[in-house]
Design brief:
The chain is of the alpha/beta class. About 40% of the residues lie in helices and about 15% in strands. Bound molecules: nicotinamide-adenine-dinucleotide and 2'deoxy-thymidine-5'-diphospho-alpha-D-glucose.
């Protein structure tokens, strides 16, 4: 039995990961710690909330005494840190919370892991740790900056973040690295490309476009829509992190990507075509027969400041050294994802019922 602290487990990727781990490792106990910000939603977890080896604790990773108590209570073997402010547009409007949560929160988790896992010191004065412990930081390809028309990010690409969000994630990565170097804490870092799949908050491109097409609202494409992202199904991200926990080498960074580069406009067109076709089939419990869905809904709006043009992940290291492979093709994953949203309109309405409308109006009325 291993006890794993998953932070941010009520968010998009974290909630998928909690379920993945409970399913994959019935002998693990998962403790999900989440502050339930606008992006955290316990509705994402209703199917497993009564599992005997699952516990939810509401709290802030920046709150040192809360995290300290948590380590005292649960004697964790592993920490997987998803908790973060995750939206680039929000980081342009209000960077401070990004530095606080993403950098300070990471520091607190590292400190408490180090303090609780230390067993003594070696002959050179370095701390020694309980066997089998691991701190894993969930990072992003955005720490590498932007690519031109060619090339891919490898683990040795220099860190060059462009947005306050990616700067906060890069800063956190460097603090994590320093705990590995200075204190020999067994850390790993994964840097992943854009995720998509169920429970994705509708401020992000794919769920926002699905939600707007269904509601026959305009589809706000930033700039010329030819920015490229490299898409990975969230379940493949979860299996990638689990592979790193099981087989990854302490101190190493692993990129996770699914080799699915797509221009934003291509994605938006795919969503228009698929949602239109699915609604015209009449199979979904939605009051829209699909007849008014067309490319006319696309509206080109002002570009994001400092918008990174292209991301592409080279996943050679994790595939060759750890034997991980993505299981979804984008074509399969996007259809399943659209179907999930069409069948889960109540979830979508529920997550949009908080301050989402106000956020949306503020954000898009300026564009
Ligand atoms: P999300 O915004 O959906 O979820 C973040 C979760 O963290 C929420 O549940 C929120 O309540 C929680 N949280 C925020 N501040 C907290 C705090 N101070 N204490 C405790 N909990 C807090 O984000 P996501 O898209 O699921 O991303 C998860 C992680 O993966 C992030 O670290 C992000 O940087 C990284 N990542 C995301 C993607 C992507 O495409 N979404 C890609 C690569 C890496
Ligand atoms: O690359 C990994 C990153 O992917 C993660 O680290 C971030 O947490 C995650 O939010 C995501 O960042 P992006 O900025 O790439 O995702 P977003 O969904 O916000 O935007 C995807 C692309 O779509 C980007 O080029 C901006 C564009 N876009 C986005 C929105 C919300 C639009 O054109 N219109 C929109 O309304």
């Amino acid at each position: 039995m291993k006890t794993v602290l998953v932070t941010g487990g009520a968010g998009f990727i974290g909630s998928n990961f909690v379920k993945y781990m409970l399913n994959q490792h019935p002998d693990y106990k998962i403790v999900n710690v989440d502050a339930l910000t606008y992006a955290g939603n316990l509705e994402n977890l209703t199917d497993i909330e009564n599992s005997l080896n699952y516990v939810f604790e509401r709290g802030d990773i920046v709150d040192r005494s809360f995290i300290q108590n948590l380590f005292d209570t649960y004697n964790f073997d592993m920490v997987v840190n998803f908790a973060a402010e995750s939206h680039v547009d929000r980081s342009i409007e209000d960077p401070e919370i990004f530095i606080k949560t993403n950098v300070m929160g990471t520091l607190v988790l590292l400190d408490e892991a180090k303090n609780h896992w230390q067993t003594g010191k070696d002959d050179c004065g370095y701390p020694t740790y309980r066997a089998g412990v691991r701190y894993h930081q969930v990072s992003t390809d955005e720490v590498y900056g932007a690519l031109g028309k060619t090339g891919m990010f490898t683990e040795t690409t220099p860190i060059a973040p462009n947005s306050p969000y990616s700067a906060s994630k890069a800063s956190a990565d460097l603090v994590v690295r320093s705990y590995g170097q200075t204190f020999k804490l067994p850390i790993t870092i994964s840097r992943c490309s854009n995720n998509y799949g169920p429970y994705h908050f509708p401020e992000k491109l794919i769920p926002l476009m699905i939600s707007n097409v269904v509601a026959l609202k305009s589809l706000p494409v930033y700039g010329d829509g030819m920015q490229i992202r490299d898409w990975l199904h969230v379940k493949d991200h979860c299996s990638g992190i689990d592979t790193i926990l099981q087989k990854g080498v302490a101190g190493e960074v692993y990129n996770i990507g699914g080799n699915n580069e797509k221009a934003n406009l291509e994605i938006v067109n795919l969503i228009i075509e698929n949602v239109g076709e699915m609604l015209r089939s009449g199979k979904y419990p939605i009051d829209n027969d699909g007849s008014k869905i067309s490319k006319e809904l696309i509206t080109y709006v002002e570009d994001r400041l400092g918008h990174d043009r292209r991301y592409a992940i080279d996943n050679t290291k994790i595939t060759t050294e750890l034997g991980w492979e993505p299981s979804y093709t984008f074509e399969q994953g996007i259809v399943e994802t659209i179907e999930w949203y069409l069948n889960n309109q109540a979830w979508l309405e529920q997550v949009k019922s908080g301050d989402y409308q106000q956020y949306y109006e503020n954000m898009y009325s300026k564009k």
